[in-house]
């Protein structure tokens, strides 16, 4: 549980850490600038910091009381548990999930194993270490399938594969990113995403991209992607919200995040991944879900910052 704060001075000097060195650097800078402006507009003494090394220097010099983490991705991205461990060791409070939730969510394959073990539905998959026999794996999964890096975000390196002839190229693209690959059953149906804020599950969003799927272009550039929020009605909506919170809790996540889901033509939900430091750009999804719940962008940033106060801490 996070704490309800009314006085902006209670937060102290806040470092908004953004940018960094991951593949999602540019998206993070965009998110970070928006968050920074919102916090400042609410009277919070917030400052931008680019990347983990600069943040750690500033913290050791005693410049900040807490951290709003809006780094995306791994390897300097700050979404993978490394930053969280460093902050724990320095006793500095920060927004969002801790070491375990961050690290586990960053690894899609291991996230899926946890969900499977709890009976939470996730598309069938084969983990592909470097050099694995991808054609044998594809036989096991069957077409259509999807190939992605196991530990990236923003749809980078993700390809839908409808026939054997497209497979090698999809694998080559995904292999440009660090870490193992993941091959999954392609779920045909609707794409939904569910934002979590504190213990509250916000209204679901049904994403309707103009193109074939929700790729990097649809996420950050295109202006013609449709967002329906709430994405579902009645029981279907409450069922998906409940599943998303279960999925989030199962990975040890905390504070805020976003659960990505595919819903097949039979109305069955399939968990894809959890994002522990989701995008906060003008095109981003969490701000849209918050708006539908009557929470404006500034209030959303405030509430995320409140998650840096752990109850009893
Ligand atoms: N199993 C799947 N079936 C259908 N579409 C998928 C599947 N996995 C991923 N996608 C599509 O690819 C996009 C990116 O995949 P995702 O697993 O959410 O990775 P990330 O957002 O971290 O790049 C999704 O938003 C969805 O459009
Ligand atoms: Mg995703």
Walk me through what this model shows:
The protein is of the alpha+beta class. It is 35% helix and 21% strand. The chain contains eleven helices and 13 strands. The strands form three sheets. Strands 8, 9, 10, 11, 12 and 13 form a six-stranded antiparallel sheet that branches. Bound molecules: adenosine-5'-diphosphate and magnesium ion (MG). The site of adenosine-5'-diphosphate has 19 residues, from strand 5, strand 7, strand 12 and strand 13.
Cα-atom radius of gyration: 19 Å
Task: Determine the N-to-C terminus distance.
Answer: 11 Å
Provide a count of the helices.
Answer: 11
Listing every helix as H and every strand as E from the N terminus to the C terminus, the arrangement reads EHEHEHHHEHEEHEEEEHEHEEHH
Q: Percent of residues in beta strands?
A: 15-25%
CATH superfamily grouping of the largest domain = ATP-grasp fold, B domain
Q: Structural class given helices, strands, pairing?
A: alpha+beta
Average predicted local confidence, pLDDT: 92
CATH topology of the largest domain: the name is D-amino Acid Aminotransferase, Chain A, domain 1
From the spread of the alpha carbons, the general shape counts as: globular
Assign the CATH class of the largest domain. Alpha Beta
Largest sheet data? 6 strands, antiparallel
Ligands in the structure?
adenosine-5'-diphosphate, magnesium ion
Number of strands: 13
Based on the coordinates given, report the CATH architecture of the largest domain. 2-Layer Sandwich
Which parts are unreliable, with pLDDT below 50 for 5 consecutive residues or more? none
Fraction in helix: 25-40%
Q: How many structural domains can be distinguished in the coordinates?
A: 3
